[in-house]
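Homework-ish question, so no full write-ups if that breaks the rules, but can someone show me the predicted structure for this set?
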Amino acid sequence: MQCTVGIDLGSTTTKAVILDLGGNIVGRGITNSRSNYEVAAAVARDEALTAMRFSLLQRALDEAGALGRAMDKPLGDAFRLELYLVELTALQREIERLLDQPAHAKMRDVLRPAASDILAEMTRTAPELFAPGAERKSDFFRDIAGAVFVRLAENLCGAPQSPVPFERLVGLYDRAILDVETRMERRDFASLLDRAATRVVPRDPAGDQLRARMVQVGRTPIAEVAFVGTGYGRQTLPFPPETVRSEILCHGRGAHRTFDGTRTVLDIGGQDTKAIQVDGDGVVTSFQMNDRCAAGCGRYLGYIADELSLGLHELGPLALQAKKQTRVNSTCTVFAGAELRERLALGQRREDILAGLHRAIMLRAMSILARSGGIDNEFTFTGGVCNNPMAVKVLRELVIQNYGEHITVNTHSSSIYMGALGAAMYALDDHRQGKGGMMPMFAQTAEAA
Amino acid sequence: MAEAPGKTAPAAAKDDSQKRQKDMIGAHFAKLARAKENGQKVVYTFVPGNLTELITALDLLPVLPEINALQSGMRKKSAVYIAEAEKAGHSEDVCTYVKCDIGMLKSGNIGPTGERLPEPDLLLLSYTGCFTFLKWFELLQQEYHCPVVMLHVPYQPDGVVTPAMRQYIVDQLENEVVPALEKLAGKKLDRDYLAEKLKLSAQAEDDLVWVWESARHKPSPIDGYFAGVYYIGPIFSAFRGSQDAVDYYRLLRSEVQARIDAGKGPTTPDGDLDDQAVRLVVEGPPNWTSFNDFWHMFSKEKAVIVASTYTRVGGLYDLGFRHDAADPLGTLADYCLGCYTNLGLPSRIELLAKYVRDYSADGFFINSVKSCNSFSAGQLLMLREVEKKTGVPGGFIESDLVDPRYFGKANIENRVQSYLQMLHARRDRSLSQIPARTTAGVQGVLS
Amino acid sequence: MTPPQDIQRSPQPNGRGNDPCATFIGRARTLFDDKALDHVKAWKAAHPGALAIGHMPIYTPRPLLEALGCLPVAVFGGGEEVDIIRGDSYFQSYICHIPRSTIELALSGTYDVLDGMVFPSICDVIRNLSGMWKMLFPDRYAAYLDLPQNFNSSIGGRFYLHELRRIANDLTARGALPLDDDRLCRALADENRRRRAIARLDALRRTDPWRCPASEAYLLVRAGAGLLAAEHAELLEGFVEAAPRRSGRPLDNVRVVLAGSFCEQPPLDLIVALEKAGCDIVDDDFQLGLRTIEGDINEEAPDPLAALAQAFLDQGRATASRYIDKDEKGRALIDQVQAAQADGVVFAAASFCDPALLDQPMLETALAKAGVPFTSFKFAENNGQFQTIREQAGAFSDSVKLWGAAH
Amino acid sequence: MNATTASPARTVDLDKPWQVTAGIDAGSNAVKVALVRSRGGDDSELVALADQRIRRRAVGEVIDATFAEACGKANLRLGDFDYIASTGDGDAVPFRSGHFYGMTTHARGALFLDPEVGGVLDVGALHARALKIDPRGKVIGHRMTSQCASGSGQFLENIARYLGVPLQDVGELSCTSTNSEAVSSICAVLAETDVINMVSRGMATADILRGIHLSIAGRLARLIKAAGAEGPVLLTGGLALDRGLLQACKTALEETQGRRGMLAKAPIDLRSHPHAMFAGALGAAILASFRWQQLARAGRVDLLQAAVAVA
Ligand SMILES: Nc1ncnc2c1ncn2[C@@H]1O[C@H](COP(=O)(O)OP(=O)(O)O)[C@@H](O)[C@H]1O
Ligand SMILES: Nc1ncnc2c1ncn2[C@@H]1O[C@H](COP(=O)(O)OP(=O)(O)O)[C@@H](O)[C@H]1O
Ligand code: SF4
Ligand code: SF4
Ligand code: SF4
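A: Not a homework solution, just the prediction itself:
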């Protein structure tokens, strides 16, 4: 099967979208951006390929009748669990390696048993994380494993007279995860799927038959024929220059394709906010970005979440419970944390402050929007921050208030992928013009057939 | 208003006119360095609305602190100077030209040619189009304790010069400025000599306008911004009204003519820009500390600048103004009133739109500098209004004149590139043939 | 139990319950909070056909506007409460705050009640704002008022008279009364009365700062933004007469002069924060637009317009917007410190305010030479956090208190 | 320790030569307490120190706990104090007798720790400030970082966390760097991205830390000079413990001084002290004694009585 790939390497997350040659979206993938861009891009793309295979698989399962359909969800969870376990093993290896280094000579005897206890416990309880209905604070290994590790470390070190220093133990994790993340683990879809299936598919003739189908799907060859990369700091992207497109163009195009009446796009990512105006063909006519200060971008919410030990997912829903919006003045990302602490100490409600913080960000976004030319009729909100329901709510209110009731405000469950989608569309353009075929290094070595 | 910036000049091969300009400047600074021993008096003044003919007609030597500041920027000295001024209590928020100048003063007042600049005998505060000028010379006055003479040039809010405005300036020239300069020079102003100078000014001005207008050709034989700042060197500074300036512009004109004949574009840091994909008009001063980097961002995407407003800060000759020997003080008043930054926003918007149309530009670009409220306050409105009037898209970045802290290279490059790619994409729109909405999207397990 | 403190820091006079000044302060506060300009609407309703003319905060000849039958309305930006959305889309982050909130309010219709705007030449930002106004509101009157920087009456004075007449003629053409000497004389007399009332308020602040904290004085002066001079004078006089009956006692504070806030205004809470940090602000340059002339204007001159112009040339208060040609930069400030018997100076300039910030080093030099302690910080009208400012002002008052004003 | 229970007024002995005082520095990140015995601010003698990080606890709770810890070490009770001075967030210390502002206390504390200093560089979680002080500890010049948080402890903490280096090892590690590169961004948030870029280029952790230290140090060096300090300067606040920062600051200062050495000023000699983190609390305690005597001399029994009423 032939397809084109678009990758949006953002400051916070890396997204990939795969289109078939008819322009249909056949796979999406996301991962956290990390210190090794190449790995981040490769992982996002692997995720997208995995999604693509899963969608093929879904079709196969559907055809396989009731049992197949029943397996769809459990299989997905089990597959995630397998991936998690693979990375957990890598983490364990890395921690062992670190402990052998001379820097840890003094504390080694205390840290090693503590770490191995924690890791054993993590492996044991891993299936709970992926059980049906389980809630995860994030989709990324770094965050999921980190949360569990810190919780277990707190338990261990919190005990009176515990000889294990908490900061060192957590430092060990932070150090190890950095290295784990920068290494590319080869992902063998077929065998992972097989292991996942072993967990959930019944061991009976019907199940065996299903597994056979799955193996088949897992091995369908996929050929990537064109590629476009985009994203923050395009100068340092690990893509060949011919394949790089401005993120402004990609976001505009992706959003326009998803909602074709859109003339205005607002993208709030981790470190930048962009307001983009597009014409009837999705081509950008003007844009504005935040200035050199990162104030009021997604990272701001990240800091706040850290400050409150919450997951990013939880921030918006909590803010939605506000009774009133506290007026928050700091849009400086770093000071917002201090202001939050100060206000909490004054006894203000957490929800109300959070609501104020969300409003502060959205006010800034509104100015950038106004700078780019405002909104005339249909408007689409994209980027990671639109996963945050409070941000969406506040924005919607502000837009209606400032531009009128007649404005259509779109958000989409996969708005975070708009940049990657636009990139994949440009890749398809290239392919159709015979300019495709240029692949980044990592894509040449990965699983593609 | 850049004069040839010595060793930081573009890597491009030097034209004869450039060499000539360099010699002129060298000679001027040499004269300045020896001013005190030769008993010559020195007048500091500003570029917009400068009274060079009047100053030189009395054999006084002009020094233009703005140009010293921008050259410090090009020579990578400005960061240290600015730090010096901030240490002395100057705010981070204010114009960096002033701080650069103050810092340079505090570090020994070494000019661009490595020679020490003479202290002023008089500060001629030509308060034209910029409030900061006023404070700048108040500050210098505290340092040098020399007399200041103020020439307040009223602002043109509606693009109209009223008789009262003109009269106000002539009154000041007649009663305050000329007497102060005469006193300093120790002699009476020879009005015939002044008229002669004004005649020479007008000659050079004719040729400069010809050069600007050559950008109507395709490809444009000049870059009206990055190279343009070199072209304005002599006429906006100490040389207007001199035979040297007349000769320089004659030479420049013949060089440009040769490029037109050969169908060639201007010389840039990336070589000759003959293949011009995009024609732009630029508003706002350039950044001096990363001048070549900034230029490169455009030239590597094959963008040529066909006109710019910054090169009009010292006079809008292309709108028809010429110094008029028949009415010396009146013509100086008109000159002062007509500088670009002395115009109200509506006039500035008109002018930009006119440039976009006259020079058939594909877009216009605003470099908004933190230092300069005179230029920058209102540029975001200009952006939208010019887009509305011309239908071509505008680009916008923020940087600074001589403070390298405010030139975020990656960020600026990202914007410039996005902007230029947008211009390209708008032209290639026919290529987007993918159906706008497709239904067969996959809501995969992982999304 | 209340925490014991060696200093009672409350800036409010005690005995709030039956404060003889409550009505005056209440009125001022109501006017301050009337961001929608309802009082201007009411005035216009009561004076059918009369114009209300807005002006930016400095050297606006309000008596001239009054003489034309207009209500002058000083526009001081949006303060803390206004959300800036569109305003930010007109101004880059390195430009001060007042023009953006002014634009925000204008675009949201708050200034629809104003029939025109006067933009006196304060600085390049306001100058360019006048042009923006003309583009954005082409149907409304907007005048840029160029103030002469030449103070010779036959040169700068002549030009200024032209400017004043131009504006008067423009307004008359738009329905204001024609310029008339009698009316102008009366307006000058009203202005003089108002100025004297402000002078009495200032005197009270100096002798009994606890009877009139700066935060209240601020509100009382600010009340005049949208009042005719006579009415404002009445309010001020009422307060000054009632104030001696207020209870309370002096606090162990230091006395400071505040400088730098002549255009964009600090949030009221910042003034309160300074007071809480132990500083009695005994003089300031807040809202200079309402008190730009020092001493009386000659209200009996045969040519009152010339008298008004002359007052600007000779008696205009020294500010950063004005070219000071003699070598006495800072003299005015030192005089102010001495007159107020202040222990020091607090520079509070709006962030990115070029006139104030460019002036400051020169003023600091002058103060240092005169041995007057000073401290400085920047603010924006919508600042909400005063931690650093409080720290700084506190350190300043600590050191004056612990070691005395002199070095 | 219940500070809010009223107790009978105590008599105040105005001629008392020694005062026992406490300084409580309620910071944004940590609470520091110093107990001092002093003769009106002279001959001060350290009695006990305690500090606790706030982390996510309620500030009031941490203050009570830290104060109790210090009292426990010295075997003192609330009633034994003549004057308790707060600094930092004074409102959080309901049992204070008086309050002094941070710059005042850091200046005084620094002078106590190192009597030679003429300047202080106080770097805490969210702020940095440079002071020029006179021999009495009076602040005669200062500069602070403005709105922007870049260049402060919180930033360093975040980076350390990202790199997996425990805070207390940051300094040592940075000192081992051989090949560093300054971080260019002025924004703390954007600087994090710079750091990520460095990691991606395979740069050694020590070099990255050193790079950050150098960029913060550049800013701090400018701050000190702008404040006008000369000669010996004490580094105080939480980051005083960070040897890497100290070293980087020294380097930064040398560089700028070397460049324009002709100015006839005493070169800045940046120093550290093991108790430098407590400068604020110490200063507050010493000034408490000074103020006590000032009030006593002025006969302000009312205020002194109020000061001890809590005990
Ligand atoms: N699940 C989520 N819930 C709430 N907010 C989220 C979620 N995922 C991401 N975000 C927000 O989106 C931001 C990242 O946006 P993204 O578009 O991925 O940025 P970039 O393109 O710069 O990498 C985060 O900083 C966070 O604020
Ligand atoms: N051992 C250490 N090494 C480096 N930094 C430290 C160390 N201990 C504390 N810090 C830093 O000091 C900061 C706290 O400083 P402090 O002056 O107490 O701030 P505040 O007064 O605002 O609470 C923390 O942000 C932390 O980063
Ligand atoms: S630290 Fe805060 S204020 Fe400073 S640039 Fe970053 S986000 Fe902006
Ligand atoms: S503010 Fe602008 S015009 Fe004025 S001196 Fe600075 S750069 Fe020049
Ligand atoms: S605050 Fe300052 S810079 Fe801003 S408009 Fe007023 S005078 Fe101009």
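Now go work out the reasoning yourself. Hint: The beta strands of chain C are 52-55, 71-74, 116-120, 141-145, 254-259, 279-284, 344-350, 374-379.
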